[in-house]
Structures are given as structure tokens and as C-alpha cells.
């Protein structure tokens, strides 16, 4: 794997140089053999020699139907990076693993630096295969933490990007496989041919590994019974621990005390935020909690994910592994941004209520939410911010004046989709840099609220409420917000949930809302709670 450094060999090219495509059909019988592959790679090597540096080569192939999650689970190794995202209601899933090229950045320039890395990588990339196929070509799997900077020792960088060695994606009933590799002017050609040919064979006749996919479980309760002291991946005291060796609902006394104290810490933070709102420091702030739990055995991120994708069909079920044994998983309801065919899609999602047990209770709760002045105000802050932040880019946004409802298995939200044509001069990352973090997860005014989040929360957010997604070689891509999530390491999980606070919010109700939001992940990790 190569780590990219910003050497600025090319000045900012605008618009970016398109990726070079060679007119070779890798699926044609004449090409699908090692000798033809060798010729092709020799050609790539000549192109690498011409510029005096390695070139990223990306081969796209349509393959027989595959489930990308099953492929990733079959090949899963905890020492490798991976990215997985699926939204069943939109009928797509994408998986990628093993970094061929990676990049990280931090601070306020992280979006601009990422853009430069992507442009420079694509300027040197060579692609073959069906470019019209969905998810063809190299993809930049990307994660931005909530804050511009992360704290030392956090498992994910403040901006982390990788291009996977292999990628499998499904849209409807079509599956594409992409192999990416670097060809250096002096790469040993035979070894390269062998490696790429093996990958080709593997994905055209993929066999799932049903028995041993890495051990661990998607849940189960802890049986070790000793210390409920949380393992804290960030080296701080955790908010609350649910060491789940007790049956759900039967918390030990110490655990109950820890949960009660976490609850009162949260209520106190909300009360303080309400004072700051009354003082005019800001109008909205989103305050979150972290909850640490422990399972009976190692938690396998992809097995947990299988439960999430089944229960939350209209969310992004995702897993991001850092290759050092930690993964960040979730079922996020919130699209931050999608860019496709010159159109940008984003949304305001804020204002929450529980689901009802019956159709009439559910409809009544939804109706109340749609009329609730406090929730509508909370929602409006997000919509206004999206409009304010995107307007300077010259976007003409269209959205409806009144929000609708997004109904998830455990909770319902006020929802307003926002759409615009993207001017050719505006890039996905320009829009993302302006949108993130929206007041759905930060606050308004942005800077004043965000500064207080660090003060009022006593755990690092990391990727919680961050921006996670991918960018393709044509400038399209999709990002969602890191919500309804957990950070997994071995048998430990840290769950995150927050709620928007505005004048009129009640500490008790906000606490209940975070419990509701924890539920999705807690159930996926430990079974019914
Ligand atoms: C902050 C979270 O969710 C966000 C906050 C919401 C709210 O305050 O009503 C609703 C949806 C999300 O935008 C979370 O899930 O942790």
C-alpha cells in the first residue's frame, strides 16, 4: 500500500483532468486470458514510464450476481481496511477492501486537501471496462470526523480516504467488480499478471466462504461476568457501561448506577445548553451521549450489519474498518449529499418522535410531530442552514415548504429533501465542505454551537455525526451522516446517540430521544432489549 503525500506535482487543474480510458474490453474472450492481460499491463507500464511514476490501473468487469456483503464477509480479515454501504430501499450495495492507495489529512483544509489528492490520483489513472456501468472505475472511500481535528489515539483520522484493491457493487440485479492496482515503471510484470489474473478468476466465479468468516458473533450477551469497567478506546471514562452478562433488562446494581449517572450528566448538559440558548449564545445545539457495552464474544461488524440491513431497509447500513481491529458501523437514516448526473441531492432531517404500537397511535404521533412548533423550529434551522451554505456556490435549490415524515423501525423524523442542478464548476467536495456539519448534528450558528459541543460532551465524537461515503472517477458520489452508530473493537462497543436542543426542549424528553436512537444498534448488537 502506498501512502500519498501532497507533493503538488500538478497545479490545481480546473476542471480536473479526466481519467485516461483505454479502449480494451476486459470481458471479450480475446482479452480474458493471461497473455492478453500481460500485453495490457505492459502497455500500462509504458504509460507509467512515460510519466516517470506509478499509475493506478482500474479494471471494471460485469460479473454474475453477487451479494457484496457476503463477498466481504467471505474475504474478511480484521487486519485489512474495508468499506461497506448498502441502502436496500434504493437497491444498491457497495463493498471494497484492502487499500492500494490511501490518504489522510486534518484541520480546516482537509476537504481541499482531499480534493487535490483525488484529482492528482485520477490524472494518473488508467481505466478499462464498461464506464457506463454503475460503480465502475476506482472509488475513493472517504470518512470525515465530526470535528476538523481528532484527538490523539482516535481510531479514525479526521479525513481518511482509500482506494480498495477490489470492489464489488450491486445495483438492482447487476453486479460489477473492480480491481485496482498500481503499476510502477519497474513493477515485475509476471508477478503483476499473476495477481490480477487470480483476482479476475476469483470474482468471475466467486465462492462464498460459509463456514469460517473470521469468528465472532453479531451479538449474544457477555458471560465473563467480571469488571463492568468500560474499555475506553479513547482513554477516557465512558459515560455508561452495559456489561451485558446480565439478561437484557436485568442490569446489575453497579451498571444501573452508572447508567443513572450518565443520564443525569446528559440532563445537566441539556440544562446548561438551554441556559446558553437563553443567553443568546446560539439557537440550536445537538448534544450526544456515548454508551459502552460488552458482548459475550468478539463482535463481527459484518454480521451485525446483516441484522441492520434487514431491519433498516431505508437507511444506509455501513461498516468502515481501519485495518487495526476497529470498525465503525451503523444504520444511518441521513443522506448528507448525493451527486449524480449533474444533480445534487441533500436533505434536512431533524425533529423526532417514537413510533406507535398501533397504526392509529403511530399516525397520531406522526401528526403531532408534523404540527409541533419546537420540532418544526429544530427542523427549520437545518433547512435554512443548507440553503444559506449552498447559495454562495450558485445552486438553485428546490424543496417543499413543509416537511414530511421519514419513518424508521424505531423512530420517525421530520424530513425535507432538497435538490439542485450542480453547476459544472462546483465539485462534490465543495458542497460537502460547506454542508458539514449541518445543524442536524452540530448547531446554529455553527461555530458558536460546535465550540460548546466539545465542552458539554465528555467523549470524543470521532466519526459519530461525521461524513462517510465515496467519490467516483466522474466526480459523482454519495455521503451519509455517521448516525445510529457504534465503534467496535473485539467484544466491546461504544454506541452514540444525540438530540437537537432548542429553546423549549426538555432535558427529560431529549434523554428519552437518545435512548430511542440507541435502540437500533443496541438491538443489533445484543439482541432484543
Ligand atoms: C443526532 C442524531 O440524529 C439527528 C438529530 C435528530 C433530532 O434531533 O431530531 C434527528 C435526526 C438526526 O439528524 C443521532 O441519531 O445521534
Automatic annotation (TrEMBL):
Residues 229-239 have a biased composition (Basic and acidic residues). Signal peptide: none annotated. GO terms for molecular function: isochorismate synthase activity. It comes from the Bacteria. Pfam families: Chorismate_bind. Residues 264-517 form the Chorismate-utilising enzyme C-terminal domain. It is an enzyme of class 5 (isomerase). Gene3D superfamilies: Anthranilate synthase. Its EC number is 5.4.4.2. Keywords: Isomerase. Residues 219-252 are annotated as: Disordered. It catalyses: chorismate = isochorismate. NCBIfam families: isochor_syn. Belongs to the isochorismate synthase family. This is isochorismate synthase. It comes from Termitidicoccus mucosus.
